[in-house]
């Protein structure tokens, strides 16, 4: 198994990632809704009844990113 640093972002982009995660943690529901709308606008094969599932999935993924970032900072 390779080291975890093999997939780590370059040091310069880590600050940008931290800013994005901070924004996500401040407004996860609004950002999830906007991203979900964008996904459904661009992917015609997604039915309207899947919108709620996409929203839940997007929100859950944002939550995982925020939680991971919080845990690695501790």
Descriptive report:
The chain has helices at residues 11-26, 28-42, 51-73. It is mainly alpha-helical and 74 residues long. Helix 1 (11-26) packs across helix 3 (51-73) and helix 2 (28-42) packs across helix 3. The chain is elongated. It starts with 10 loop residues before the first helix and ends with a helix.
Short summary:
The protein contains 3 helices and no strands.
Apparent shape: elongated
Give the biggest beta sheet.
none
**How far apart are the first and last residues' alpha carbons, in Å?**
25 Å
Average pLDDT confidence is 85
> What is the alpha-carbon Rg in Å?
15 Å
Along the chain, the helix and strand elements come as HHH
Secondary structure: helix percent: over 70%
- The count of DSSP E runs of length 2 or more, i.e. the number of strands, is 0
Are there runs of 5+ residues with pLDDT below 50, and where? none
Total count of helical runs of at least 4 residues: 3
Q: What percent of residues are in strands?
A: under 5%
Main structural class: mainly alpha
Labels describing this entry:
3 helices; 74 residues; mainly alpha
Fold topology:
Elements: H1 11-26, H2 28-42, H3 51-73
């Amino acid at each position: 198994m390779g080291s975890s640093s093999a997939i780590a972002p370059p040091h310069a982009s880590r600050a940008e990632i931290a800013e994005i995660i901070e924004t996500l943690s401040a407004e996860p529901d609004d950002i999830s809704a906007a991203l979900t709308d964008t996904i459904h606008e661009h992917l015609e094969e997604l039915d309207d009844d899947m919108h709620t599932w996409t929203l839940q999935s997007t929100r859950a993924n944002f939550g995982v990113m925020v939680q991971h970032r919080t845990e690695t900072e501790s």
